[in-house]
């Protein structure tokens, strides 16, 4: 017997007040359950909504960053040279790498392989495969925008390369804001695995050792970096990070197509059998 | 004429008509039985034992008594006012010279009020 119960003497507990009490207990239990359920619901909503709000905020920051990157990317650094980029060979953490500094370049994205056949095009200095191609529909993997036109969609790869007015911005985004900004500006956009973002190495599912290639952004400069030997993705990412890269995304390498045209180097790998998607760098001169 | 309650121990025996008992309150192992004329009788038994004794001796007539919380058994015939919000229970009767006022828990008072109201509904045709 509790202080908040009553009991009529002489009749069974089930017949009288205790039943009323039990009803009240059920009501209390129900209220408690509803309260606990509501509390859990609020927690779940907070858990779900907070990242969404955070993502929206971060995505806006990314768009601002793309604008800033496009505005502040280093202008014509090699003013007197016919060659519109600089080439280095370096060895970071025992990872030998070919480094192409592309500051004097105008970047674009294309799915038209005939443009690459025109190698007499004097302005075209480097062409690399931008992203992998799906087996089923032969379209690029992930979101892919060419000159404001959306070609493919997908977010399996969080790294992105945004190209606006021929300038490149690299980052990581799970949403569409940066892509929508590119579409709005008539720019281009593709997705690849992020290797280094804000100076931090990103975890990736890519396994094995292969020739690796990356598009790198560092202090307003854009680089294409390729490993000389077969490397694991982590060793390659670490070497890029130790090189001082702020942001880097993966580019398909190995036997994948790459055209490099200079006075001293002229390297050209296999052209894809089916239509590819190409990141093209042309001299601004 | 209602049945009488007989409380007996090794020293004495007390016999009171059930209808004259206004309430029985307890303080641990001691219980105080209060009659309508304010006579107070203290017994060395707790309220649970008193409750069993009432049920044994009165049978169905024990229904005139209602236990309210852990420390009080009241005679429903003397209930004069129940106010759960003010936490007020008043026992009174025309034969009583004064009223007895208690402050059980609000929940118990609310249950008591509902119980008496439900009985009222059952009586109505």
Would you write up a description of this structure?
- The complex is a heterodimer of chains A (285) and B (125).
- Chain A has 285 residues and is of the alpha+beta class.
- Helices cover 27% and strands 35% of the residues of chain A.
- Chain A has four helices and 18 strands.
- Chain A is elongated, with a radius of gyration of 29 Å.
- Mean pLDDT of chain A is 78; it is low at 75-83.
- Helix content of chain B is 24%, strand content 38%.
- Chain B contains two helices and ten strands.
- Chain B has helices at residues 47-58, 106-123; strands spanning 4-8, 13-17, 21-27, 30-35, 40-43, 65-68, 72-75, 79-83, 88-91, 100-102.
- Chain B has a five-stranded antiparallel beta sheet, with helices on both faces.
- The mean pLDDT of chain B is 88.
Rg on CA atoms of chain B, Å: 15 Å
Work out the number of β strands of chain A.
18
Helix residue percentage of chain B: 10-25%
What CATH architecture label of chain B applies? Beta Barrel
Which band does the percent of strand residues of chain A land in? 25-35%
Strand arrangement, major sheet of chain A: 2-3-14-13-15-11-12
Largest chain-chain contact? A-B, 16 and 28 residues
Structural class of chain B: alpha+beta
Task: Tell me the number of structural domains of chain B.
Answer: 1
* Count of DSSP strands of chain B: 10
> How would you name the oligomeric state of the polypeptide chains in this document?
heterodimer
**Helix and strand run of chain B:** EEEEEHEEEEEH
Which value, in Å, is the CA radius of gyration of chain A?
29 Å
Percent range for β-strand residues of chain B: 35-45%
Distance linking N and C termini of chain A: 95 Å
Number of helices of chain B: 2
The number of distinct structural domains of chain A comes to 2
């Amino acid at each position: 017997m509790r202080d908040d119960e009553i009991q009529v003497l002489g009749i069974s507990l089930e017949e009288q007040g205790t039943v009323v009490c039990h009803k009240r207990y059920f009501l209390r239990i129900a209220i408690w359950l509803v309260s606990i359920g509501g509390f859990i619901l609020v927690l779940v909503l907070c858990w779900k909504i907070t990242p969404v709000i955070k993502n929206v905020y971060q995505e806006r920051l990314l768009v601002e960053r793309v604008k800033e990157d496009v505005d502040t990317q280093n202008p014509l650094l090699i003013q007197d040279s016919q060659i519109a980029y600089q080439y280095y060979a370096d060895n970071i953490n025992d990872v030998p790498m070919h480094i192409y500094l592309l500051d004097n370049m105008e970047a674009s994205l294309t799915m038209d392989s005939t443009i690459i056949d025109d190698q007499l095009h004097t302005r075209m200095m480097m062409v690399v495969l931008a992203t992998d191609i799906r087996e089923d529909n032969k379209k690029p993997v992930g979101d892919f925008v060419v000159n404001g036109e959306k070609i493919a969609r997908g977010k399996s790869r969080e790294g992105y390369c945004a190209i606006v007015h021929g300038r490149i911005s690299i980052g990581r985004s799970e949403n569409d804001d940066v892509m929508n900004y590119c579409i709005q500006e008539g720019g281009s956009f593709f997705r690849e695995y992020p290797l280094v973002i804000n100076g931090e190495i990103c975890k990736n599912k890519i396994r094995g050792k292969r020739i690796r290639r990356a598009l790198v952004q560092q202090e307003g400069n854009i680089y294409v970096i390729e490993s000389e030997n077969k490397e694991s993705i982590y060793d390659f990412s670490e070497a890029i990070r130790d090189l001082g890269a702020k942001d880097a995304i993966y580019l398909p390498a190995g036997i994948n197509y790459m055209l490099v045209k200079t006075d001293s180097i002229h390297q050209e790998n296999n052209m894809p059998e089916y239509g590819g998607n190409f990141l093209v760098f042309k001299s601004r001169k | 004429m209602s049945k009488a309650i007989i409380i007996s121990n090794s020293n004495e025996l007390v016999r009171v008509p059930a209808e004259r008992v206004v309430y029985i309150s307890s303080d641990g192992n001691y219980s105080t039985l209060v009659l309508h004329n304010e006579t107070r009788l203290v017994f060395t038994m707790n309220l649970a034992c008193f409750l069993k004794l009432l049920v044994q001796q009165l049978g169905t007539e024990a229904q005139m008594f209602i236990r309210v919380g852990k420390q009080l058994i009241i005679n429903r015939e003397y209930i004069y006012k129940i106010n759960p919000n003010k936490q007020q229970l008043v026992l009174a009767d025309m034969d009583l010279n004064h009223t007895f006022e208690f402050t059980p828990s609000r929940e118990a008072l609310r249950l008591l009020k509902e119980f008496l109201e439900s009985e009222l509904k059952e009586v109505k045709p």
